[in-house]
Amino acid sequence: MLFNSVEFLLFFPAVCLGYFIIPHRVRYLFLLVCSYFFYMCWNPEYALLMLTSTIITYASGLLISSAEKIEDEKKRTRRKKLYVALSFTSNLLILFFFKYYGFAAQTATRIFGRLGLHVAIPAFDVILPVGISFYTFQALSYTMDVYRKEIYAEKNFFKYALFVSFFPQLVAGPIERSKNLLIQINEKHKFEFERVRSGLLLMLYGYFQKVVLSEYLGIVVDSVYNTYAQRTGFQLIVATICFALQIYCDFGSYSNIAIGAARVMGFRLMENFNTPYFAVSVADFWRRWHISLSTWFRDYLYIPLGGNRKGKVRKWFNLMVVFGVSGLWHGASWHFVAWGVLNGAYQVIGEWLKPIREKVMTVLHVDKTAFSHRVAQILITFGLVDVSWIFFRAGSLRQGLEILNIMAGNGVNYWFTWGGNLTAMGLTPEMLNLLLVSLLIMFIADLCKYNGIHLISWLAKQGVWFRWLVYYAAIFGILIFGVYGPGYDASAFIYFQF
C-alpha cells in the first residue's frame, strides 16, 4: 500500500479514527494489526520474514537481559556477546539471502570464470521483500541497545512487534531507535488539534514533493538516463541535477508523510532530512541526508570500528568501510558500492587537503564568514554529491562510467542547444514552468528551515482566511498538477527498492 495511493487515503483516516476511539490499553494491539495489514498488502508471505526477525531480536533482548544476572563478569560478558552475535548473524543471513545472494553468486561465478574454473552456483528466483533493509536494521539496533544497557528489554512481545512494524515508517524509514519509538508505545496519546494539524500539513507537503516535484523531475531523469548513449553531455548534466533533486523530493516526501502520519497519532519520529543541499561539505551533507541511516552506521559500525579514536589513518579507513557498506546496503550492485566509496573518498580527501586549503585561504585573505564563501562551499558540495548520484542512478558501474565519459566529451554542445535539449527531455513548456515554480517553492521552504523559520508554526499564527486559502491552494494544486501514473496508478517511492 503506497502512501500516494487511494487505498492509503482510505486506510489512514480509518486507522486514526479507530486509534483514538478504542481504549488506550489495547491501542498497541490495534496498531500492530493495522501495521501487518499495511505490510501484507504488498506480499502476505513476506510478513513471516518480518515476524521471524521480530521473534529473533525479541528473544535476544530477553536473553541478554537474563545474562545480566550471571555473577561471573567474564562469563556474563561472553554470554551477552554470544546472544548479540546470534541475533546479528541470523538476521543478516536472512537479509543476505533475499538481497545479496544473487549478487554474490554472480560475482563469484565471474571470478571463478576468469580463473578458468567452472563452478555451478545454484540460483534462486526470489523477490526482494519491501523494506527488509529498514526493519532489519531497526530490529538489530534494539538488540545492541539492550546489550549496551541503553534500554531495558521489552517483555511484551506485541509491543515490541509494533516497534518493528509501525506502519508509517515501516518500509522506508526513518530507521527508529528503541529508546525513542518503543517507549512511546506506552504513552497515552490524546487527540490534540494543533498536533494533528501540524502532522497533516507535513503530510501535505510530502505529497507535494512526491506527486508534483518528484514525478516531473522523474520524467526528465528517466527520459535521458534510459537513452544516455544518444544524449549530449549537457542533457546528462541537466538530468543528473534533476535526479539529485528527484531523489531528495522522493525520499524526503516519504519521510515527511511518515513523520506527519505518526505525529497525527501522537508519535514522534526522528528527523530524516535537514536541508541537505545547503551543506557546506560532503561530511556536512551526510549529517543532513538520511539522518536515521547515517547515525545508525555511526553508532553501530563506525564507533565500534574505532571511530576517530585511533589516529587519522584508522579514521579514514573506518570512513571508507562505513560508506562502502552504506553503498552495499542501498543495493546489491557494484555501482551502489562505487557511490558509497566515492562519498567516503570525498571526506578522506577533504580532510587530507584541509591544511593546504587553510593556507591558501590565509594567503588570499578569504573571509570564511562571507556570504559568497558559503555559497561557493554549497555549490562545490552539491557538485561533488551530484557526481556521485550518477553511479546511484545508473544501471551498472559501466553505465555510470560511460555517462561520465559522455559528459566530459560533449562540452562543445552544452550551452547553445539549451532550448532544444530541454524540449527533447520529455517536458512540455507548460510542465517546465510548473516544475520551476514548484522548485522555487521547495527552495523557499528549505531556506526558511535552514534559517530556523518553522513554516507550519508560522502558518498556524496567521488569520483563518489566510490559512484556509493556503490549505485549499495546496490541496487543489496537488490534485490538479500532480502526476499519478497511467490510469491514476500511484508510482512507487525510489527507496522501496532498498
Q: Could you walk me through the main structural features you see in this protein, from its secondary elements to its overall organization?
A:
The protein has 498 residues and is an all-alpha fold. It has two domains: 6-190, no CATH class; 195-497, no CATH class. It has helices at residues 6-21, 27-40, 47-67, 73-114, 132-147, 157-165, 178-181, 193-225, 233-265, 282-288, 291-302, 312-330, 334-363, 371-393, 397-409, 418-423, 429-450, 455-460, 464-481. The longest helix has 42 residues, at 73-114. The two termini are 16 Å apart. The model is unreliable at 414-419 (pLDDT under 50).
List the topology elements.
Layout: H1 6-21, H2 27-40, H3 47-67, H4 73-114, H5 132-147, H6 157-165, H7 178-181, H8 193-225, H9 233-265, H10 282-288, H11 291-302, H12 312-330, H13 334-363, H14 371-393, H15 397-409, H16 418-423, H17 429-450, H18 455-460, H19 464-481
Helix pairs in contact: 1-2, 2-6, 3-4, 3-5, 3-6, 4-5, 8-9, 8-17, 8-19, 9-14, 9-15, 11-12, 12-13, 13-14, 14-15
